[in-house]
Every structure is written in C-alpha cells, then in structure tokens.
Amino acid sequence: MTYLIRYLKLLLVTLLFFQCRKHDNRQFQQQTGDPLIVNEIECSDDTTQQYCIVLPERYDNQNAYPLIVVFDPHASGKLAAEKFMTAAADFGYIVAASSTIRNGYPSVEYALKILYDDLIKRYKINNERIYAAGFSGGGMVAQIFSQLNKNIKAIASMGAGYSLSDPAALNNRPSMLFLAGDEDFNYNEIVNSGKLLSHTNIYCYAYTYHGKHEWPENDIIREAILWFEFDAYRKDKKIIRKRVVHDYHTHIHQEIKTLQQQGNYIDAFNACERGIIFLSGLTGTAKLKKSLKAMKKHPEYIREVRKKEKASVLEMRLQQGYMAAFGTQDTLWWKKEIDGLNQQIASGSDEYMSPVYKRLKNFLSMIAYTYCNNALKENNLQKAAQYIAIYQMADPENADVYYFRALLSSKQGNNRLAAIFYLQAVKMGFSDFSKAKQEMPPSVFVLSEKQ
C-alpha cells in the first residue's frame, strides 16, 4: 500500500494577470512593480526541456538571487510558478517551475541536470540559497533533485512523504519540510516521515493543515518559503531579517492562544511545535517549549490524541480492506460502501473520524485511478468499465473519470462517444493533451471540435 501511495499519484488570487512570453537575452523590463512571469523557456542544451520562470521585482544580473525550483505532478510549470509567485516576491526569490517533468517521466535525472544547468547559465543565482519544492509526485522529484545536486539546501515536499533511501545513506542532507492537508490520502505517510527523520541528523518537520490532496493555498506556500528563509538565516546569521523572525514569532504565539481559546489542543500543540522547529537558533523559544510541555500534560490534549490515534488505526484497517476488495467486489458492493462514507462525511458527527472518511474517499479515488489506468493499458475493457464506474462513485468531479470514459469508448470503437467524454473531461480541467494524443486516434479530437 505504501508503494502505491508513493508512486501514484487557483486559489492564488493576483491583482494583475501577466502575459507569458518567450525569454531572450535582452534586459528584463519590470512592469507595474510586480514579479515578471516568463513562460515556457526552452533550455539551450535541449529545447524539448522547458520551464516557467518568475523573476523578482527589478531583477538585474548584478545581484545574486535565491532560487526555488518547483515541480508539478502534471508538468504544469505555469501553475506551479503562479502558486509560488506572490510569497516568493516578498523575499526576492527567483522561481523556476518545470514544464517537462511529470509523473512517470522516463528521464528525470537527465531533465533535472538540463534544467539546473540552464538556470545557472541564464540567471544570477546565489549558489548558497538553492531550494526545491513540489506537490505530490513533484514533491518526490524535489527529494530526488536534492540527492542529485548538493547545492540544494532545503526542500518542501507537499502531499508526498519521504521517498528516498535509508536516511543514513543520503549523500546530501538538506533540511526537509513535509506538508499535508488532513484530507490528503498521503496524510499518515507524511506525518510518519517527520517521525522517521526525527531520529536522524536531518533537520525536518511534518506540517499538517486543513486541506485536500492539492496544491496548498498561498498562506501555506508562504510557510514553505519561510522554511527556506529560516534555514538560510541559521547558516548565515549576517543575513537574518529580524523583522521577519519577529513577525513569525508573534504570529505563532497568537495562533496558539487562539486555538487554545477554541479548545483545539492538538492544533495548538502542533503550532507550538512548529514555532520551535522553525525559529530554533533564530530567537528565544523557551516560552514555546514551556507551553509545549504543559500542553502534553493537559487532560484535553491527552483525550484528543487518544481519539485521533484510534481513528488512525481504523483508517489503516479500512485502507487494507479496500485494497483487497478492489479486485473482488462488484459495483453494487462499492456503491453501498461509498454511500456509507458519504453519509458519515455529511453528518460530521465525529470531528476525529470526519477527516478520516474524507481521506478514505480520496484514497479510493487514487486506487481507482491506478486500476483504471492499468486495465486500459492491458486492454481489459470489461474490468476497465467496472473500475471507471467505481472511480466515478468515489470522485464524481474528477476530470480523469471522463478522460478514462473517453479512452474506453475509443478502444471500444465508439469515437463519437469518446469525443463527448473527452470534451467533458477538458471542461472539468483535464489538460494533459500530449498524453491524450498518444492514447486516442485523431478522429476523437476532430469530432470533439464539432461538438
């Protein structure tokens, strides 16, 4: 199950929209004081390798800038760059997001080298401040990148837990931040990543928040960038921005106070722990450590932890059961099971089990995607139809459901129906057009344009 989770699988509002353009070697022209996006730059050593860039305000080649290299699981470089754009601008980072490396990409090591070499040649980069970040499969790529390139000083892996070899065997030990929403099917894996690495000399933290398996919102992205900032401050005290440290210290104390007033002791404990890890070596954390110690003994905190642990045990048991049932149970059984999960989610009667039920549905979506994909590749159309039906019950708003229906219809020889499903998939957000062109005949796309 861990193997499957590891290897499978805009709320960013800006005041201005930027037109993306090809980059050349001319002087960059800053517009309206905002970051400049340059889209789909072709690497000079291999023009099939592309990335999207975000440059700081008034970028020039006389100053060296910190760099974040970002990876999206579907190689949506523009989306990944936009996600980091606002927070990165506050701290003067260059953001480069790959538009080539995606889940299942066959030449990751080669693509990472070409990307890195191009960035170093084109831009003025501070070699002491290079970072990697990514979501889901992109988070795994960020981890791989940190082992191929010792200049990577810290990583932020969102929606993906630790996926490298034995920590003791790593040839580079960047500080590692793992982030997961409490509805993410990788939630437990990410939490366990923090526990695993806490026994090593790798500086790490597992950051959890309320959210799904998707790119985090801007406030969480900002926390990831602060992880990079504080990592740099610890290594070079001369560059510490005292106001940034002070503001974060104040923010953490206020967050803890608010959560305690709400009776939310687990989140208060997590905020306290986060403050200690983030601010260690930068400012005094004695008060936070004292609060953490007191919270561990609080009866409400102990009660909440026990309930959460009990819910986690049940979740693991249900995941194992669902894995076994996928190859044996029919769609009627799955309809009853998924209806039951939906009822539990709708009732919201148990605050500890509610995120568990949501994670289980997301887990089913991920497993269903895998089974659908494999059945279609093997041309087992009968099983594919069954798995797609289950997928749609588990995740009816997912564009991949309709893409799989389109692919199934095309394999069955019904290109007209395939075109209808394909168009629906695109309307719902499907954008992997190169994959679609490889897997379906041209007539499907011709027919979809006529709809």
Write up this protein.
The chain folds into two domains: 2-8 and 16-237, Rossmann fold (3-Layer(aba) Sandwich), CATH 3.40.50; 330-449, no CATH class. The chain is globular, with a radius of gyration of 23 Å. The two termini are 41 Å apart. The protein has helices spanning 2-7, 77-91, 108-122, 137-148, 187-197, 218-235, 242-261, 265-279, 286-297, 299-326, 331-347, 354-377, 381-394, 399-411, 415-427, 433-439, 442-449, and strands at residues 36-43, 46-55, 65-71, 94-98, 125-135, 152-158, 175-181, 204-209. Helix 4 (137-148) links the parallel strand 5 (125-135) and strand 6. The model is unreliable at 1-33 (pLDDT under 50). It has an eight-stranded mixed sheet with strand order 1-2-4-3-5-6-7-8, with helices on both faces. It is of the alpha/beta class. Helices cover 55% and strands 14% of the residues. The longest helix has 28 residues, at 299-326.
The sequence of SSEs as H and E is HEEEHEHEHEEHEHHHHHHHHHHHH
CATH superfamily of the largest domain: Alpha/Beta hydrolase fold, catalytic domain
Largest sheet: 8 strands, mixed
Which whole number gives the mean pLDDT?
Answer: 90
Radius of gyration: 23 Å
Q: Helix content range of the residues, please?
A: 40-55%
Overall geometry:
globular
Q: CATH class of the largest domain, please? A: Alpha Beta
Distance between the termini: 41 Å
Number of strands: 8
Structural class: alpha/beta
CATH architecture of the largest domain: 3-Layer(aba) Sandwich
β-strand percent reads: 5-15%
Number of domains: 2
> Biggest sheet: strands side by side, in what order?
1-2-4-3-5-6-7-8
CATH fold group of the largest domain: Rossmann fold
Helix run count = 17
The low-pLDDT segments are: 1-33
